[in-house]
Amino acid sequence: MKLSLFSAVFFAALGGAVHAEEADDIREASKTEAETFNARMYAGTPGNKAYACFVRRYDAEHLARHPKQKVASMKLLVSAELDTEDQQLHNSFRLGFKYRHRSGDFDSSGSCHHVVFAKDGTELRLGCGVDCEGGGLGVALSKDDRSAIVRLARVRVWQNNKPDDDAEQSLVAGADDGIFRLDRTDNRECASLVTDRKELAALRHK
Fold first, then answer.
1. What separation in angstroms does the CA of 20 have from each of 11, 87, 99, 112, 158?
2. Are 26 and 119 in contact (CB under 8 A)?
3. Does the N-terminal or the C-terminal CB of the chain have fewer CB atoms within 10 Å?
4. CA 26, CA 123: separation in Å to the nearest integer?
5. How is residue 30 annotated by DSSP?
6. What region does 43 belong to: left with phi over 0, alpha with psi -120 to 50, or beta?
7. pLDDT bucket at 64, cuts 50 / 70 / 90
8. pTM for the full model?
9. C-alpha to C-alpha distance for 198 and 6, rounded to whole angstroms
10. Is 167 exposed, middle or buried (0-12, 13-18, 19+ CB in 10 A)?
11. Which pLDDT value is given to residue 124?
12. Which DSSP string corresponds to 139-185?
């Protein structure tokens, strides 16, 4: 499939979301494929607004088996909103996590413009990126749709929801921090990632 210039630029900016060896395998999903993926992500037709929350808190046994893992817990909120102008569904993400050996809450956010095929065309992923070359991540679903599979190489993060130069850092994939499997849960579990009051109220009622 020949990609548009916008798509090509987007995929180039999304370099942190997929490993380099997979780059040649990426292609944009068709409208039908994207709609099917979105219905799986949001457990039904998204409509004008939808959310999906995934959480993982790693226990001592898991961390003992993965001594190089830096992340102790992670939350992912994926949201969809229908744009009234272009009548297209726009996805976005918010990521929150705690480090294993550092205090404080860290978070990131960005847009997810495309559903893409990756990994030799056998896996659909939501391709997400952080503005200003902030890296990105790919979000796939387990076969039973009960878990999100998050893949990243590097993503810009901020501490305690403070997007300023002093707080800005990056979560960089290491031996045990490149792939995370997060479990689907009640959307209210991701309320801590939302700061807008209207959106928070909508999240709690979805």
1. 12, 33, 26, 19, 25
2. no
3. N
4. 10
5. P
6. left
7. very high
8. 0.83
9. 31
10. middle
11. 87
12. EEE-TTSSEEEEEEEEEEEEETT--STTT-EEEE--TTSSEEEEEEE
